[in-house]
Design goal:
2 copies of one chain form a homodimer. With 444 residues, chain A is mostly helical. The first copy, chain A, contains 24 helices and 6 strands.
Chain lengths: 444, 444
């Protein structure tokens, strides 16, 4: 943990050497988190004190709008220096977060060539491979020898974020091959890049970030080149960014499965009003949907008045249906998200869930019958409860098996079928099953 | 997609060149998935045909027991060659999956030094950093120059899995520093490793894999050195293994939040009986817990008989409580898992959830009152329903805010507090709230 007071002290004394020693004792992300807690003028003072390259390393971990607020208030020369040190994907994200007019002013501080390539990155919609890509990679023509390549790396390598791979490109910038730095070092110095280059696997800039992350994780790579429609290399996405994507997607799925819309930021950064908005929508939809259980129950008012003990088991029966449905839905939504299950597996999934449902349903039947007996109700009411429990378990398994797969097929997010959603769905239908079984078995 | 028949054909013709061209057109993991679908003798034939280094690349992606089955049936010389080409963490996993006696026989095929280091890796319990580590990294003394180091890399680099970093170790193997390959290439050839080495961040071999993955993802690294209690370097964990850990942990959390015990393998690899076992435990626990709603309802039988319309709203009210609880629980369990929330935040979380609960509760109050009015029940029953809905929402928010944090503090997995769990908990207590409010407001 960084001592904030100590940090303030260092800023006040303004001794560069002391500040550097202090900064070097910590990681940039830790320094960034502490910096966020400082007052605005302290933040600026710290940025001015540190060398631009160190300042950029810290700035990288702040939110785009915070980055802009700081850069905007610094001397224009310093802003330009820090801007040039920041990774290009970070700069692109910041530019997209601020007003067009503000972004243009900042872009003017960058060298022409860099600015143009950055503007290409900025054209891709959010959540695509293109929007995550960095342009700080090293490309080289295939005719270069290992020696020439290494010399080039020595010249430009300090600026590059991706150095594990060198990308071989053709005359028009089209991606022709990939060579790992390890291979370059191991090869004979006179070898040409094209002789040892591997066939590149690239993704189109428009590919969704989730799919890109899946690809990278499947093949255990640390970086993936991103190309445009003409197969020209326009950037590289790195494993650290894709890890963030995977974690965010899992968080979103969990929040959605919990019956809420996904939050935009972290828990504490979300305001109470934001939490309210994300939750109330589904709560109301489900409330209105659940309200029809009232209609169902009123429909069976006579049956209920006749055998009031039937009411005792309502929460138990619909609760069990909801639990079964939630189990199945969450397993399947996750399996769909990580690509273990596809729509073409629909019948396999239904069969698997139904067989499992028969097994769990039978177990529940026995326990439900015993429970009814323990509550001291008539034995045929016990039979009604046990049988209903079993049918509801089967019904819930069936519905929960189908819905996520169909939604996935329709290109909707299957996580919309949340636990609360399936529970609500099974509640009303479960009651109909319950009273139908009751009327038949009890001859009402 | 790989054409299985074409693959079989290539195996039958047994032309090495053709087989190699075929294999090179695909990625090892894709070949591994196809290989799994072949008959045992075809699998062996394929392994014999390919050069050991290619065979090892494919074998790497199979399950430990499948790996063993194949290796066990190959000629002992070939087994030994493939074994030496496999990444050390893969070999260790396989050794741990098979019988001690079988493992010893395989270990005898490895060079002495390698075997000893491998056996060290094998001593660490599952799900720790040590169990994930590979020993195929490059270490060097700090007194080496860049030139000497590069020469060494050229000699041993082909065997190494981790080449992005060179680890500087002392006389006793203690970890002194880390130097990236990029830095080695950029530095002056006469520089000594110790002059440019960075302070290493390492993890103890006993650290949990989840915590290790969090650390790596926080600092955007691609590899983390693992040390023993004496700070001696014993292995390196790589980002690809930790991505798998993160994905598995997210899957487990989702399955647990869905009210099931986590599955051991993927959905389709889990047998129906395995699914049954993982689900029935929680289904039964929740069924028995839910059964007390029957006791509560029987307790209020008189009230219910007097005002039968109260029964209409039971599913709606307890359903809404469950939905609210599920929303809160899933958000918090995930926030705990990714380290956004800690136990020390308990009061902040409770306050945040209660304020949000007051907002959602008030909205629900209005809608519930309207719903009761639409169902045509007496207005004071409507008031009972609206007021109960609001209190239940608040109550569910409160319980769902506390439980995951307390469980986390007690070092238990907070995901045990699943949606179905909180729903069940709120069902019974919600009924007590309902009938208490009803008795007071309706003067029963």
């Amino acid at each position: 943990m960084i001592d904030l007071n100590q940090m303030r002290q260092k800023i006040l004394t303004a001794d560069l050497d002391q500040m550097l020693t202090f900064a070097e004792a910590f990681r940039p992300i830790d320094l960034a988190e502490s910096l966020e807690k400082l007052k605005a003028e302290e933040q600026l003072r710290l940025m001015e004190l540190l060398p631009p390259v160190v300042a950029a390393e810290i700035l990288e971990f702040l939110e785009p709008l915070v980055q802009y607020k700081i850069l905007h208030n610094l001397d224009v020369n310093l802003t330009s220096q820090i801007l040039n040190e920041l990774p290009s994907d970070v700069v692109a994200d910041m530019m997209l977060a601020i007003h067009r007019y503000q972004a243009d002013k900042l872009l003017d501080l960058l060298p022409d060539d860099y600015r143009k390539r950055l503007q290409t990155l900025m054209t891709f919609p959010e959540e695509t491979a293109g929007s995550l890509a960095t342009i700080d990679y090293i490309a080289a023509p295939g005719q270069w020898t290992m020696d020439t390549t290494l010399e080039h790396i020595r010249k430009v390598g300090r600026e590059a974020e991706i150095t594990a791979y060198i990308y071989v490109t053709g005359m028009k910038g089209e991606l022709l091959g990939v060579v790992s730095l390890k291979k370059i070092i191991l090869a004979d110095p006179a070898t040409l890049l094209q002789e040892i280059a591997d066939e590149p696997i690239s993704v189109p800039a428009t590919m969704g970030q989730e799919e890109t992350a899946e690809l990278l994780s499947r093949y255990d790579w640390v970086a993936l080149p991103v190309v445009d429609a003409q197969q020209r290399l326009i950037g590289v996405v790195t494993v650290d960014d894709l890890i963030d994507v995977m974690q965010e997607e899992a968080t979103e799925d969990i929040q959605m499965l919990g019956g809420s819309q996904p939050l935009q930021g972290t828990y504490f950064k979300s305001s109470v009003f934001h939490l309210y908005r994300k939750r109330i929508i589904w709560l109301l939809i489900l409330f209105v949907a659940e309200a029809y259980t009232g209609t169902v129950l009123r429909h069976y008012e006579d049956t209920l008045t006749e055998v009031i003990s039937l009411a005792f088991f309502i929460p138990l029966l619909i609760g069990t249906g909801g639990n079964t449905g939630t189990q199945t839905v969450s397993t399947l939504v996750r399996a769909l998200a990580v690509g273990e299950v596809h729509f073409r597996d629909l019948f396999r999934v239904i069969r698997k869930e139904l067989v499992t449902g028969i097994m769990t349903g039978s177990t529940i039947f026995i326990i439900a019958y015993l429970r009814a007996w323990m509550l001291g109700v008539e034995m045929n009411v016990g039979l009604v409860v046990g049988l209903t429990a079993m049918i509801i378990v089967l019904w819930a398994s069936f519905v929960a098996a189908i819905l996520p797969l169909v939604l996935h097929k329709l290109k909707a997010d299957p996580a919309v079928i949340s636990g609360p959603f399936i529970t609500t769905l099974v509640d009303g239908t479960g009651l109909i099953i319950y009273f139908t079984v009751a009327r038949i078995l009890l001859h009402l």
